[in-house]
Amino acid sequence: MLKERTIFIAGIILAFLPFSGFPILWKKILIALIGLFLSYIAYLQYKEKNLLSTGPKKTETYTENESNINSKPQQ
């Protein structure tokens, strides 16, 4: 929940940054830093999701029994 809240706050800061009174150079630097920070948080989320889903993967397996298809009915 902390990561989601952090992303939300960074998004709000990013939305209001163009309307702030900072010089253009500072705005560009802050936008780049916030972008890198959000990328890092997204990477952490990706790693956490993969660690949780590393358990055994269950898939359905289908096989055909060809011997029953080609054989003659038993009498």
> How are helices and strands ordered from N to C?
HHH
Mean pLDDT: 82
Structural class: mainly alpha
Q: What would you call the shape?
A: rod-shaped
Q: Uncertain regions: pLDDT < 50 for 5+ in a row?
A: none
Helix content: 55-70%
Specify the number of helices: 3
Radius of gyration: 27 Å
Number of strands: 0
User: What portion of residues belong to β-strands?
Assistant: under 5%
Q: Major sheet: size, sense and barrel closure?
A: none
- N-C termini distance: 67 Å
Outline the structure in words.
- The protein is rod-shaped.
- With 75 residues, the protein is mostly helical.
- It has helices spanning 2-16, 24-52, 66-70.
- It has a domain at 21-51.
- It contains three helices and no strands.
- The chain crosses the membrane at residues 7-23, 29-46.
- Keywords: Membrane, Transmembrane, Transmembrane helix.
Helix and strand topology:
Blueprint: H1 2-16, H2 24-52, H3 66-70
Helix pairs in contact: 1-2
Keywords: Membrane, Transmembrane, Transmembrane helix
Transmembrane segments: 7-23, 29-46
